[in-house]
Design a protein that fits this description.
The chain has 292 residues and is α+β, with helices and mostly antiparallel strands. The protein has three domains: 4-64 and 282-286, no CATH class; 68-92 and 169-260, ATP-grasp fold, B domain (D-amino Acid Aminotransferase, Chain A, domain 1, 2-Layer Sandwich), CATH 3.30.470.20; 95-166, 2-Layer Sandwich (Dna Ligase, domain 1), CATH 3.30.1490.20. Helix content is 31%, strand content 23%. A five-stranded antiparallel β-sheet has the order 10-9-8-11-12, with helices on both faces. A four-stranded antiparallel β-sheet has the order 4-7-5-6, covered by helices on one side. α5 runs antiparallel to α6 (146-156). The longest helix is centred in the last third of the chain and has 14 residues, at 220-233. The protein is globular and about 60 Å long. The relative contact order is 0.17. The model is unreliable at 194-208 (pLDDT under 50).
């Protein structure tokens, strides 16, 4: 296999990771990669002799084998939890609240800013909150008093129109990446060492300043639950974030959220270009750019 460094070399820092990986996979699998946006990587095509498809960065999906309905449902954390709970998949639950009055006439009562404050009190004045449609840990934060909640709602309302509020739990956090029913990799999230501190504006995930390491969970139940979650949502490609050993109980496992458009930069950082190639090969096969 060629080096990923070759495909990243000379590109601006803004060049999307997945565009690099797509170009790399095309070179390895005999497909044609064409950047059609002046070298930004924001829009590109992948073509075989008989077929071609387009990809776009940003909010566009890198995994067209996931249908639009499944991807949209997975992007809403409340919808995801509702579907998973109905399928018998344990989640962290949570309630959603809107931060603006716009479109209020089109939604049921009980989900406004005042309701968020009341629910926060019911949770004992402490909760984990994050944007309902956020990604990459954006504004995901634990809050421990009502004054902090009010400041949080004001700040987040500048960027998002709704949040999910959940009880705070402690456990071991894993990400399981699946292609259909196959686990491609699992990773464990570790916090920063004590005494270190990062300031990350606009991104306050508890693990945003930590590290992820390729590591398989000790329990087979983690993979079984991840598979069940992905099947319930109807996804072919997904990364399932999970807590295990909740409260020190090795049998307590909960799904945090399901990502239908996950980043795979960890694989590049871990020297696993073979797994990046495997993921993109799955995409190209699904889009009939490659023969079986």
């Amino acid at each position: 296999m060629q080096s990923l460094e070759k495909f990243r070399s000379g590109k601006p820092r803004s060049y999307p990771d997945q565009s690099v990986y797509a170009a790399y996979a095309c070179a390895e699998l005999g497909l044609a990669f064409a950047d059609i946006d002046g070298g930004t990587g924001l829009v590109f095509s992948v073509a075989s002799a008989a077929n071609s498809i387009y990809f776009g960065a940003g909010r566009c999906s890198w995994y067209p084998q996931n249908n639009a309905t499944a991807s949209s449902l997975a992007s809403d954390k409340y919808f995801t939890n509702a579907i998973l709970e109905r399928a018998g998949v344990a989640t962290l639950g949570g309630e959603y609240f809107f931060l603006r009055d716009r479109h209020r006439a089109h939604r049921a009562a009980g989900h406004e800013r005042g309701d968020a404050q009341e629910h926060f009190r019911k949770l004992g004045g402490t909760a984990f909150v994050k944007p309902l449609l956020g990604s990459r840990g954006d504004f995901a934060q634990a809050l421990h008093d009502e004054a902090s909640l009010l400041r949080y709602l004001d700040e987040v309302s500048q960027y998002y129109d709704s949040i999910l509020m959940q009880p705070i739990v402690s456990g071991i956090e894993y990400r399981v990446f699946l292609l259909d029913d196959e686990m491609v990799y699992a990773a464990r999230k570790y916090p920063l060492p004590k005494g270190e501190r990062w300031d990350i504006p606009g991104r306050m995930n508890l693990s945003a300043g930590g590290t992820m390491v390729l590591e398989t969970p000790r329990s087979d139940a983690v993979l079984a639950l991840a598979r069940k979650a992905v099947r319930a949502l109807g996804l072919r490609v997904a990364a399932v974030d999970m807590f295990t050993d909740i409260g020190g109980d090795p049998e307590a496992i909960r799904v945090i959220e399901v990502n239908s458009n996950p980043s795979i930069r960890l694989l590049e950082q871990s020297g696993r270009g073979d797994l990046i190639l495997k993921i993109w090969r799955h995409t190209f096969l699904a889009m009939e750019l490659l023969g079986v």
